[in-house]
Amino acid sequence: MKNDQEGDREMALAEWQEHIHQLRLLVEHTNEFTPSAFVKRVDEFMPELRSAAMGTVIHVLNHP
């Protein structure tokens, strides 16, 4: 049975991986946007991506 720390770390990593997947999908469909619309979508997405990244880093560093 996994402890809570391992579960939290795995959940944070899964969230990060989901956000990376969403970013990849956005990039794959770049040609569907004008350059300015694409930049706007990426800018709107960055806070979520940054938050997921920081959550993963915090869990990994605090629970080696």
Counted up, domains total 1
Q: Main beta sheet, described?
A: none
What would the principal axes of the Cα set say about the shape?
elongated
Write down the overall mean pLDDT.
87
Q: N-to-C terminal Cα separation, in Å? A: 17 Å
Q: What is the percentage of strand-forming residues? A: under 5%
Helix content: over 70%
C-alpha Rg, in Å? Answer: 15 Å
Count of DSSP H/I helices? 2
Q: How many strands?
A: 0
**Poorly predicted spans:** none
Q: Strand-and-helix sequence, N→C?
A: HH
Strand-pairing-aware structural class:
mainly alpha
Question: Could you write a compact summary of the structure shown?
Answer:
The chain is an all-alpha fold. It has helices at residues 4-28, 35-62. The protein has one domain (1-16, 33-64).
Structure description:
- With about 60 residues, the protein is mainly α.
- It has one domain.
- Helices cover about 85% and strands about 0% of the residues.
- It contains two helices and no strands.
Notable traits:
single chain, 64 residues, mainly alpha
Topology:
Elements: H1 4-28, H2 35-62
